[in-house]
Amino acid sequence: MVRVGSRDESPDQTGFAHLFEHLMFSGSKHVPSYDQVAQNMGAENNAFTSNDLTNYYLTFPAPQLEVALWLESDRMGFPLIDQKALDTQKQVVVEEFKERYLNQPYGDAWLELRALAYQVHPYRWATIGKEISHIEQATLDQVHEFRQRFYAPDQMILGINGPYEIQKVEEWVTRWFGDLEPSGTQRSTYAMEPPPTGIRRQEKHGAFPAPALYMAFPMPGRASEDYHACDLITDVLSRGQSSRLFRGLVMERPMFSDLNAYVTGDMDPGLLVVSGHCAQGVSVDEAENAVWDELYKISNQGPSHDELTKSINQIEASLVMGRTNGLNVALNLCYFEYLSQAEDLDREIDCYRKVTSERIQAMAAQLLKPERAAILRYIPNEQDNHG
After folding, report:
1. CA of 297: how far to CAs of 63, 226, 245, 304, 375, in Å?
2. Whole-structure pTM value
């Protein structure tokens, strides 16, 4: 895990963390083809970038640990990034930008919603970048400068999960990573987003299959003691078929064909989001009013004892099941070490168990106010004159 995400970019050079993730598969000093060596050792690998971090992961037969460490240390310490590799990956990322964000209905939702919800924090652009030109104009010098700042051992966390003796693991890690030079980079701190002073709205009209609604409310960051209460608000609202939004607005009163509530989970203050697509014949105004009704209910009354118990049981089941997947354990260990300390992974369920119905109601009342909302609405052309 590399401590670099889209929030570490400058506003005029966005998308670099994600572009660099692609470049790290272009080969290294002793490994011309990373994927070929990984395939030969029976491994599966991939990577992803978020606002806060870039993750590279490799799942392999247990006896291959030292080969895996050699493979990772070579590309982290000695990547071969030349103009040809940069041109190739820029083209790949630009096509991804077009395919996923620009050329499908609602694809630009997160590009628009982030810019609506954030005014000053770098979370205001998506991981893919703010605009295609930032990728197209990226130079080799800029890419190398980015690598020197962030791709060094003092900016990385290495998580290993498997049937190993810790002493042997430490010996091999030192052998393969010990000679990599630290960057000395001090991570920037960012101006805190000012409190919202009124509802922010944006409407998009076009050839959309159905009206769609996205509502975002600023919420505390992942390390906050209030985070778990916010997460439980969204679980009570939309986790499972017995949840409030699904039961009330998808099944009993079909205002939406799908409707979800979730938190972004960002390390700095993030967003609590409610989003869905309207059912046939339902206007976005009607749908939005129905959602507000449900948000008012949880803000005024909070969840019942049964709703809270069910939500906490679901979270506990997910955490326990997550321990059965070796890759998931390694990723979580890295994440909690980045957030605070790896040992906090074992305390996570206790943080949820401590949350009361009264606490959820109080957080909902604090967060889910119209004057704190950023609302993005998609309206099909045929509904321009009504709804």
Report:
1. 55, 20, 11, 11, 19
2. 0.94
